Amino acid sequence: MDDFTAEQRARKFVQSVAPASVPVLLEPYLAQIGAKVTVDDDLAEGEAGYTMTVKGRHSIVVNGKDSERRQRFTICHEIGHVVLELESEHEDPSWSYERRPPNEVCCDIFAAELLLPVSLFKPALLKREIDARCMADLAEKFNASLFATGSRMVTFSSEPCAFVVSQGGKIKYAFRSSSLRDAKLWVPSGIMLPDRSLSAALRKEATGAGPIELDADEWFDDVEGGVVLEDAIYDAFRDQTLTLLSLDIEDMPEKAESTTYARQEDDEGQKELDGNLPWPKR
Length: 282
Ligand SMILES: [Zn+2]
Known about the structure:
Radius of gyration: 19 Å
Structural class: alpha+beta
Bound molecules: zinc ion
Number of domains: 2
Low-confidence stretches: 262-282
């Protein structure tokens, strides 16, 4: 199953329940598939949950040690396994987003759609800045994780912006808005956070609040000119940094000529986990 199909089926499922207020209640979703939830306080740390199906009845087990938001995500992820009829591939509980098995990615997309339904999330995002405050506000409002909220923000933003996830100071993944992708602007992954970034500073000490302005080439590969607005939230416990980058449409950086061609292939090869339409497979 591809990401697009998972997203479409999630939207259909959400429409069949038609949540009207936030935070979205999970009971109607569970009722739709005839599932019940059990909280298990003895699950190992890092094991989010699983589903047992006996004679067609689904029992979703979640980890009692996880936060309420995490449990909500897990429940919706497990509903994804049931609705999409995808086997779980939970062997590796370590946080390695870029290596998540395809079934798990599909269920994550499904879960994000249930918790942050497009019909409710898009209006909530209107006229908001793409910054950390907005991400924290919306996460609170929808009782969803910062991670899911940040990735949905750039998915539905009409602005050129990106949501960057870093672990241990190293950039793991960048979600880009469609206008940023159209501009072929690229945040490299697998490298350390830019020295002069707010994200790098937050790891060293609790510094002043963002957003801050930086030359676009601090964050974007092979560009000239332009300014990027950066804001970030640092989770010291997980050593994880969530960064929001937005560009001024009036002052966009230019692609440096010599490297445009070489980067195009990478650009298309990047796997998006944000529920955006994937590039057509060749
Ligand atoms: Zn799963």
